[in-house]
Amino acid sequence: MRAETPRAVPPRISASRPLRRFAAATLVAALLGGGAVLYLFNPSKHGFYPVCEFHEMTGLNCPGCGSTRAAYALLHGRLTVALRDNALFVLSLAGLAAWSVRSAWRKWRNLPAALDLSPKVLWAFLVAALVFTVLRNLPAFAWLSP
Fold this sequence. Notes:
Elements: H1 17-40, H2 53-58, H3 67-75, H4 79-85, H5 87-108, H6 119-136
Helix pairs in contact: 3-4, 4-5
């Protein structure tokens, strides 16, 4: 038998610094532009926003129903209206903000800032979204519907 020669490990490919800056600038511009459109045009009064196909086909509310209106309310400083439109979305934004602060802190401390959400957290979010969806479609919990 012949012994195998060890394979050389290929170098790790990473994005160049100018490419990362361009991607970050593009993302920031898209977020600011989308936020400006959402701030200026109320989703309840303007029809160019996308509609929920699940709601159109079934008449039921999905976990995302009301998110655009909730984002509009948040941009105008109306937290209670946003919570009434979609509480899951608002609480998810709070969780995303906390995770972003943690990632920025880790990057500032020169620690790896990878997407380090455990499967337990992801499963818990999925279960919460499913429970939220079921509850908001029951008559007793109509206050969860947008």
